[in-house]
Write a structure and sequence with these properties.
254 residues; Rossmann fold; three-stranded antiparallel β-sheet; 9 strands; globular
Length: 254
């Protein structure tokens, strides 16, 4: 079972009675949960339950209709000195297709630091090495497999060494081998670097394998109907909706 490398109960993400939606549509009401340092935290729910909308609020692209969302004790915007306080990957990686992988990973460094070209090149090589893409700098995204694109997107999200990563469906559309490789990478980053990860996912096998905690969103009630360790929720929840949702995956090995 994955476990946090930290013992602190301090919340990196603190959601308090938040109501979120897009325009006039509300998708989630009175949501409260915390993401602690060292968590691999999964946001779960059926299509239309508001997972991606909630993620947009967590990273500051949208403002809650009511309630409070804090990242490291502040609204989820840039820090006082201008640097982003977390890394983000969107579905399918969202790499710039006309730019090399090296240039994609270098973008945050060029935008937010004053490092010279040589230093940036060293950091880019280091980040690509960490995600298993050593030597991929000159390649274009079109030359990479789906799993490699995800790894490159994670490398770009890590460029500024944030303590927190938000990932939107990082294993969506990947074959089982590539999916397992991304799971292994996230576990390694979490265990070795202490990186906190918040991911939106519909891949329950991955969630059971790597997530330390989760929330489950319900489309009909527009509420969080469960939160905690997904393995424990699957077997012990008194809510039939929770058991049905989490019962759609094979039990994790080991």
């Amino acid at each position: 079972m994955p476990s946090s490398p930290h013992t602190s109960n301090d919340a990196l993400v603190d959601v308090r009675d938040a109501t979120v939606g897009v325009a006039d549509e509300t998708v989630l009401e009175h949501a409260s949960f915390q993401v602690r340092a060292g968590d691999i935290f999964a946001v779960l729910g059926r299509s239309g339950s508001g997972k991606s909308v909630l993620l947009r609020h967590l990273i500051g692209l949208e403002v809650p209709k009511d309630g409070v969302i804090l990242v490291e004790g502040e609204p989820p915007t840039r820090s006082a000195h201008g640097l982003p306080r977390y890394g983000v990957t969107f579905q399918s990686g969202a790499l710039f297709g006309s730019m090399s992988i090296g240039d994609n990973v270098a973008l945050p460094l060029e935008r937010w630091t004053r490092f010279g070209r040589d230093v940036i090149a060293i950091i880019v090589r280091s980040k690509l090495r960490v995600v298993g893409l050593e030597g991929a700098e000159p390649k274009l995204p079109s030359e990479l497999s789906g799993g490699m694109k995800t790894r490159a997107a994670i490398a770009r999200a890590m460029a500024l060494d944030p303590p927190l990563l938000f990932l939107d469906e990082p294993t969506s559309g990947l074959d089982p081998v590539s999916r397992d490789g991304i799971d292994d990478l996230l576990l390694e980053l979490n265990r070795q670097l202490g990186l906190t990860v918040v991911l939106v996912s519909h891949e329950l096998e991955s969630v059971f394998r790597i997530a330390s905690r989760c929330v489950l969103l319900d489309r009909e009630s527009r509420r969080i109907i469960a939160q905690g360790d997904p393995r424990e929720l699957r077997g012990r929840s008194d809510d039939a909706r929770v058991r049905r949702f989490l019962g759609h995956a094979a039990p994790p090995e080991g």
